[in-house]
Each structure stands twice: as C-alpha cells, then as structure tokens.
Amino acid sequence: MSETQTSLMNQQLDALLYQETNLVANLANASALINDTYTDLNWAGFYLYNDTTDELDLGPFQGKVACMHIKPGAGVVGTAFKDQQVHRVANVHEFPGHIACDSASNSEIVVPLTKGDRQIGVLDIDSPSLDRFTAENEQELTEFAKILMQHID
Ligand code: SME
C-alpha cells in the first residue's frame, strides 16, 4: 500500500460512518471492522480518556473482558497515550509494565486518537502471535484513526 492509497478497510470505515457521529456506535463498528479484516487477533478496541479521573476507561471492543481503567503512562496503552505516539510492540512480555488483560496477547499495537487538540484515547489491538503487526499495518491503522476522528463530534 502506498502512502497515498487508502486501503479497502479504511474506505469501508469512511463509508460505514458516513453521517454517523455517535461515539459509542462508531467505535463499536470500527472495532468490529478491524476484527473482521485483520486475522490473528485476540482483542481490538478502544480506551477513552476520562479527564475527571485522569484515567483511560474501557470503550467498545471485540474480545475477552478487559481492564476497565488504565492510567496514562501505564502499560502499552497508557504509554502510547502519554507519549501521543504509536507503539508497535513485537513482544509484549518484553515491554516494561505491560498489562496482561488477556494472557493470550503476545504482540500489540496502540494508536493514539486525537481530534484537534483533544486527546480522545487510543485504539488498541492485540495478537496471540509475536511480531504480528507490520509497518504497513501501522500506516493503515494510523489512517484508520484519522478517519475515525473525522466521524466524531
Ligand atoms: N495490554 C495492554 C492493556 C490493554 S489489553 O491488552 C486490552 C497494555 O499493556 O496496555
């Protein structure tokens, strides 16, 4: 995939969310779309920043029950949120402070979600395979997050 070419999944996301602005509904379908498109996942979903508690709260997802609250700076999720950078982790067991919500997870990618200067939360995807996520996946998921943020108020 070239940098200028929008992937089929990202075109589907843009079409699926056309004129839809409900946050929960959009994130729910976005997590389902990732789970349907990517193979070899055990978790795909969202953590949303709660500025009252200064925590990331569990949002819509596909997968097993997960941690309800994660502090900024904690685990892969909290670190990506705090740094405002994508974290693509080949082996989560080597990541200091990794939070093992689902013991099946071996690799993970976390993409921060921002709208203007608002830090909304993160997209978090886990795989049972080591080194599951490629640089191309990172590029696609970064664009996915950008499209998603265009469809929330
Ligand atoms: N493993 C994550 C926690 C979230 S679960 O994977 C859904 C982490 O270390 O931040």
TrEMBL record:
Signal sequence extent: none
Keyword Kinase assigned: yes
All copies of domain GAF, residue ranges: 43-152
CC annotations in GO: cytosol
Pfam family, one: GAF_2
GO molecular function terms listed in the Swiss-Prot or TrEMBL record: kinase activity; L-methionine-(R)-S-oxide reductase activity
UniProt record similarity statement: Belongs to the free Met sulfoxide reductase family.
Protein name: Histidine kinase [Lactobacillus allii]
Lineage: Bacteria, Bacillati, Bacillota, Bacilli, Lactobacillales
